[in-house]
Amino acid sequence: MTPLLHLKALEKRYANGTLALQGMSLDVAQHSFVSFLGPSGCGKSTALKMIAGLSPVTSGSIEWAGSHAAQPEISFVFQEPTLMPWATVFDNVWLPLRIKGQSRQQAQAQVDAALATVGLSQFAKVYPRELSGGMKMRVSIARAMVTQPLLMLMDEPFAALDEMTRFKLNNDTLAVWQASQFTTLFVTHSVYEAVYLSQRIVVMAARPGRVIADMAIDEPYPRSEAFRTSERYNRWCVQVSTALHESAA
């Protein structure tokens, strides 16, 4: 697969001396879906923030491959939808294009396409207070994808949702990823979610955060409820759970 991103001996040490991340080396391929899995405090979210340029690197390097030597378009989906409550769904999704200088008319087609992809076309004029938690997160995903990013960073976006909504959004996320073909780095605490979504799972140990296992989930897409209830899925979950328990030990 074509490389996109190289993390080389990445380290993060905070001003108080806390070593949050140590020696993280990882190659990420274009169009891949990679999950970071591990206990709280293992540096999963820290790694995403450094890749996004939201947190400085203490040592090591983040290098973009080939024609992406300059940092490409990156979108970030946070744990909370962080929508503007005074703005409609359309205006929330338009925001990153508006910041880039695009008028409402110029952005119309892109916003409409993003809302259609997450199944919210008929809610364009609705305000966030009128949406469920799952729908708010879909708006957040639409806003992230409207710029057509090369890399999508997702930091536990479904952690606060009920199980049924989470399952639905897992399916929606895979559909969006397959349709748009951006690379996805996804942070989660859930073994089950990581196995269902990912081509590859990077298991991290507790502080100082470091990679202790890098596991390929060799299962085809699209994935369905049949996979989620299969013996193969269960075996993958056991393997990943074992690696996660070893990281805690």
Word description of this protein:
- This protein has 249 residues and is of the alpha/beta class.
- It has 2 domains: 3-72 and 153-248, Rossmann fold; 84-149, no CATH class.
- It is 38% helix and 24% strand.
- The strands form 2 sheets. It has a 6-stranded mixed sheet with strand order 5-6-7-3-8-9, with helices on both faces. Strands 2-1-4 form a 3-stranded antiparallel sheet, covered by helices on one side.
- α3 (104-117) crosses α4 (133-145).
- The model has no long low-confidence stretch (mean pLDDT 92).
TL;DR of this structure?
This protein has helices at 44-52, 89-99, 104-117, 133-145, 163-180, 191-197, 225-228, 231-248, and strands spanning 3-13, 19-29, 33-37, 59-64, 74-77, 151-155, 183-188, 200-205, 210-216.
Q: What does the largest sheet look like?
A: 6 strands, mixed
Query: Could you say how many structural domains there are in total?
Result: 2
What letter string, H or E per element, gives the SSE order? EEEHEEHHHEHEHEEHH
Oligomer: single chain
Q: How does CATH name the architecture of the largest domain?
A: 3-Layer(aba) Sandwich
Order of the strands making up the biggest sheet = 5-6-7-3-8-9
Roughly how many Å apart are the termini?
Answer: 34 Å
Q: Which range does the strand content fall in? A: 15-25%
